[in-house]
Specification:
Elements: H1 4-17, E1 20-21, H2 23-26, E2 32-38, H3 43-55, E3 61-64, H4 76-87, E4 91-97, H5 104-121, E5 128-132, H6 136-141, E6 149-150, E7 172-175, H7 188-192, E8 196-201, H8 213-235
Parallel strand pairs: 1-2, 2-3, 2-8, 3-4, 4-5, 5-6, 7-8
Helix pairs in contact: 3-4
Length: 246
């Protein structure tokens, strides 16, 4: 599960449907399938998944955080990667972390602040956001901000207090959260059997061969460890003497 081959099969179905859309395009379509990626732990894995899409002549939307402890979007490497993804035609947006905020006025202000910061610090502007681990209150709020698109606003997502199997919603939402498919599988029947679909993936879950939950986290942690070792090695001359002992 969650191999690139599985992902390619999903993209093939979406391409055949003619309904592929980003959030801007979906606003003008009666039938759409949006593919969105919330980037949690690894910019590298997001880029790798975007390269799979590039090979298939497909583009989607990637959301990156400002406040994630696992990566820095302003590092030279990550900034270049994200800019390259944008140049390859992918839509890029802000993955907004609530970080304990519950007051809706403050949430609105912080989203606008982080969008503004992005547009000042990176080489291109963004006007779309998704919320990281949204609460029911945030989903029910249906946040709308002038000039900014919310991935969870009611044009692209249907909020319900409790989603049950077989429940008919205006927008079918499918997510790979917790390294499993939730609310249905992105198969042909589901993708084409609903007029409006939003598919959310988390790129850290996807690899060439596909791992189970345990081995996926093991491989992700090893990748991040090697990146830290490389960073220390390039920054600290005195690391070389003990590097092989680490």
């Amino acid at each position: 599960m969650f191999s690139y081959e599985e992902y390619r099969k999903m993209i093939e179905i979406i391409k055949e449907s003619g309904r592929a859309a980003d959030f801007h395009q979906a606003k003008t379509m009666d039938k759409f399938i949006i593919v969105r990626h919330d980037v949690e732990f690894s910019v590298d894995r997001a880029y790798a998944l975007s390269q799979v899409e590039k090979e298939m002549d497909f583009t989607s939307t990637y959301f990156f955080q400002w406040t994630n402890n696992s990566y820095n979007i302003l590092s030279k490497k990550n900034k270049e990667i994200i800019t390259k993804m944008h140049e390859n035609g992918h839509a890029i947006g802000l993955h907004f972390a609530l970080n304990g905020l519950t007051d809706m006025v403050e949430i609105h202000k912080q989203i606008e602040k982080e969008i503004k910061a992005w547009n000042m610090m990176l080489d291109f502007d963004v006007d779309t956001f998704s919320v990281h681990r949204p609460t029911n209150a945030v989903l029910a709020e249906n946040i709308k901000i002038d000039g900014i698109i919310n991935a969870y606003e009611n044009e692209f997502f249907t909020y319900a207090d409790k989603v049950t199997e077989g429940m008919q919603l205006d927008v079918k939402y499918i997510s790979d959260a917790q390294h499993r498919w939730n609310y249905g599988q992105p198969d042909r029947e589901t993708l084409l059997g609903n007029d409006k679909v939003q598919v959310l993936t988390h790129p850290y879950s996807w690899t060439e061969t596909g791992y189970d939950n345990l081995h996926n986290f093991r491989s992700l942690i090893e990748e991040r460890k090697q990146e830290l070792i490389h960073t220390i090695d390039t920054e600290c001359k005195h690391f070389a003497a003990i590097k092989e002992k680490i």
